[in-house]
């Protein structure tokens, strides 16, 4: 079409081109498979175009009413977003059985997954993503065994684990957040045991001085282990990813009747969007029907 990559100041003309771009993405996508993009993906692409113009051309692209109407239509005709399933305590126990703890890498993976589960960590907060690592990824110096008050101590006398995260993707000012989780009382699923597994694995792998707690463990490796486990138990493997760890922790807290403020603070959510994360389990609805038939 030989269009310029820059949109002109004409709002109507700019929105017409953005609209055609959105329709093309919805119909064909942008990869060789020619599968159309979903509404959420198109929104991200349009946001990138707007940011690029603002950053390099000092121009703010205004969305016209006709463009808003077009996007509403795309949203209505797009398939619903497939939510990932949470890792549950039962899922974690099955994962434990599949791992070979004689292999330091498997021990590192187990400890990392457990720590992410108990602290509701985003993958970028404790894992490598491809060849990239975020500046706020959990550092070795910011994770330690602690007493009930959160003061550093030895493994033998510890009753909790404390971690510090220097920022996150929703904390661009780098306000360090410290969180403490106490022993669970479970023989397998416990934050104190998780950190112990991590430290032993690092030593066995020869990376005891690695600046990042989970060393070189990649998000893709964790996701693949989840998918392999899901396939082995007969559930769709596409339902599981590293995001399932954070969802799983939030779901377990919600099912365990933890108050919403505790979940929000532990997960470091800046607003109430965390309410979309937990998945309602059968256990969490026990007693609800009886409350619906009580006569005042």
Topology:
Blueprint: H1 11-28, H2 39-57, H3 65-77, H4 89-98, H5 104-118, E1 143-146, E2 160-168, E3 171-182, H6 191-205, H7 219-232, H8 243-255, H9 260-267, H10 288-291
Antiparallel strand pairs: 1-2, 2-3
Helix pairs in contact: 1-3, 5-6, 5-8
Structure, described:
Keywords: DNA recombination, DNA-binding. InterPro entries: DNA_brk_join_enz, Integrase-like_cat_sf, Integrase_recombinase_N, Phage_Integrase-like_Recomb. One of its GO terms (biological process) is DNA recombination. The radius of gyration is 23 Å and the shape is elongated. By secondary structure, it is mainly alpha-helical. The protein has helices spanning 11-28, 39-57, 65-77, 89-98, 104-118, 191-205, 219-232, 243-255, 260-267, 288-291, and strands at 143-146, 160-168, 171-182. Among the domains are: 11-77; 89-135 and 184-276, no CATH class. It contains ten helices and three strands, in the order αααααβββααααα. Strands 1-2-3 form a three-stranded antiparallel sheet.
């Amino acid at each position: 079409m030989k269009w310029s990559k820059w949109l002109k100041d004409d709002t109507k003309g700019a929105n017409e081109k953005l609209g055609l771009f959105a329709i093309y993405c919805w119909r064909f996508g942008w990869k060789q498979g020619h599968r159309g993009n979903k509404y959420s993906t198109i929104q991200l692409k349009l946001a990138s175009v707007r940011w690029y113009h603002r950053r390099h051309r000092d121009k703010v692209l205004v969305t016209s009413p006709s463009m808003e109407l077009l996007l509403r239509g795309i949203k209505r005709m797009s398939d619903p977003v497939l939510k990932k399933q949470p890792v549950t305590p039962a899922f974690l126990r099955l994962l434990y059985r599949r791992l070979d703890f004689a292999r330091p890498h498997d021990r590192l993976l187990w400890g990392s997954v457990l720590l992410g589960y108990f602290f509701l960590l985003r993958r970028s907060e404790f894992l490598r993503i491809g060849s990239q690592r975020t500046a706020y990824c959990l550092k070795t110096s910011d994770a330690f065994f602690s007493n009930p008050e959160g003061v550093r101590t030895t493994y033998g006398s510890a009753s909790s684990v404390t971690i510090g995260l220097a920022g996150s993707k929703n904390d661009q000012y780098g306000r360090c957040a410290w969180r403490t989780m106490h022993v669970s009382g479970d023989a397998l699923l416990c934050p104190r045991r998780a950190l112990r597994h991590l430290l032993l694995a690092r030593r066995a792998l020869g990376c005891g001085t690695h600046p990042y707690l989970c060393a070189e463990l990649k998000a893709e490796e964790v996701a693949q282990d989840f998918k392999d486990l899901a396939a082995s138990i007969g559930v769709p493997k596409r339902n599981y990813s590293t995001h399932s760890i954070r969802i799983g922790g939030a779901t377990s807290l919600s099912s365990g009747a933890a108050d919403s403020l505790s979940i929000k603070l532990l997960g470091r959510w800046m607003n109430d969007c965390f309410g979309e994360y937990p998945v309602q389990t059968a256990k969490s609805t026990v007693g609800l029907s009886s409350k619906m038939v009580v006569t005042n």
